[in-house]
Design a protein that fits this description.
about 230 residues; alpha/beta; Rossmann fold; Arc Repressor Mutant, subunit A; 2 domains; 4-stranded antiparallel beta sheet; 8 helices; about 40% helix; globular; binds calcium ion
Length: about 230
């Protein structure tokens, strides 16, 4: 399973999370301080992160945003307190892949963790249908290895950025509206959370487009949503 970084300042919850990540087969590294966890995560050699929102040192939103801006694309499951809905929306905008509201049930924690790992692994479901790489001009999506490259150079995408790109690129020319993308990529009915889609599209464009302001691959269908360019366009 590899290494899970657990960031939670409440000791009881931290110990509980550690126990369950170990039972899933992870080596665990647990932190109570956000800044220490952030500095550890910058090293990059981990496989999964459980990240609380409110932390001493550096809060979960800043940790997530700063890791993503430094191209650390590892799966992140964010822990939020019930009622912190605005934080949750911001969490997803900063690039977290999924969230769990506290208090949570253990089987829910395990299920979310497993689903996220399945999706972020080579050959993972449900977006990797395998098969030949998708090639569009200088952009190549290797569905077997979940690898994206531009002009031969590997691009680091988060699990959600990858799923978004793969969904769009698998249907060139087809417009998906934001609610549909939320539903298909995030698997939730996140009414009114369309901004999460916009922020992921922006980050995806900043990585794969030469000129994100005038994109060649991920196009805007004004007033509706987004589409991938047609093959010969
Ligand atoms: Ca906390």
């Amino acid at each position: 399973m590899g290494t899970a970084i657990i960031v939670e300042d409440e000791r009881d919850i931290r110990e509980l999370l550690t126990l369950h990540m170990q039972s899933l087969g992870f080596e665990t590294e647990a932190f109570a301080n956000g800044l220490e966890a952030y500095e550890r995560a910058l090293e990059g050699n981990f496989d999964f992160m459980l990240l609380d929102l409110n932390l001493p040192g550096k809060n979960g939103l800043e940790i997530c945003k700063d890791l993503r801006s430094k191209n650390i694309g590892h799966p992140i499951l964010m822990l939020t307190a019930r009622g912190e809905e605005s934080d949750l929306v911001r969490g997803l905008e900063t690039g977290a892949d999924d969230y769990l509201s506290k208090p949570f049930r253990i089987n829910e924690l395990i299920a979310r963790t497993k689903a996220l790992l399945r999706r972020s692994k080579p050959g993972g479901e449900p977006f990797s249908s395998g098969g030949a790489p998708l090639v569009y001009g200088k952009l190549e999506i290797d569905r077997e290895k979940r690898k994206v490259s531009l002009e031969g150079a590997r691009i680091e995408l988060t699990p959600k950025e990858y799923e978004l790109l793969l969904l769009l690129a698998s249907h060139p020319g087809v417009t998906f509206d934001r609610n549909e993308l939320l539903d298909r990529v995030w698997s939730y009915d996140f009414d009114g959370y369309e901004h999460t889609v916009n922020s992921h599209i922006n980050r995806l464009r900043s990585k794969i487009e030469k000129d994100p302001a005038s994109p060649a691959y991920v196009l805007t269908t004004w007033g509706v949503g987004y589409r991938f360019r047609e093959k010969d366009a």
